[in-house]
Amino acid sequence: MRTTILITSPDQWTAPGLDLFQFAPIIPGGPEWFTKPVLIALLSSVIVMAVCWAAFAKPKVVPRGWQSLGEYAYVFVRDQIARPSLGKDADRWMGLLLTVFLTVLVWNLMGVVPLVQFPVAAHIAFPAVLAISVYGIKLYLGVRHHGVRGYLRGIVHLPGLPGWAYALYAPMILAEVFLTSLFTHFVRLFANMFAGHIIVAFFSSVGFWFLFERLTPLGAGLGVLGVLMAIVMTAFELLVQFLQAFLFAMLAGMFIASGLHGSH
Fold this sequence. Notes:
Subcellular location: Cell membrane; Membrane
Largest sheet: none
Membrane topology: Multi-pass membrane protein
Mean pLDDT: 89
Main location: membrane
Helix content: 55-70%
Oligomer: single chain
Transmembrane segments: 38-57, 93-116, 122-143, 189-211, 218-236, 242-260
Function: Key component of the proton channel; it plays a direct role in the translocation of protons across the membrane.
Number of domains: 1
């Protein structure tokens, strides 16, 4: 497993950069794709499956322990994500939406786990694959339930819009539904996790350098400030990590609903 070196010069502090996101294969001479982010993603999947198994494999009438945690997550996703978007179809899609929410949440939380400290979604390939999967489900549902023509008509049709205006409106709404929505789904998650990881690493590097590598009376204050800011930004990042998991799952629910209902 590759350890990223933030300090590249023995005499000068260097801010962390894109090297934080570059990883060599875990096994020397092994598969190029088997890097730290892949290992963390696999570990995240195991964690999600283990939590769900512990919570729901043998449910009790009075929930305790993992079951209480699992039911809280289930109710949150059902009431805040599934039902507002899918209405009467919410229960049918709870398995997918709960899995998406928990997977993205664990991916994000890996950024603050000691020794791991890398949010999987900060590597754009992972949220992109998840978003493309939801996108494929949306298109499949739209065509299956409405046919190609009916699906496109449901997207483009806007009551009260003059016929001549469709020449402008139709291309824009079709681009939003079939292109922009896909990219915004995963880019929002990726950008937030990428930026958050950089910011926390920056302040951590400042604190480490001025308190341990080059401790001086003048630099000590800056080092303490770096440590305090790293703590504050980590706490803020926890909030962002939960919020981004919620938004990603909420958009997934909205896209699935658009396929079912044949509208934008």
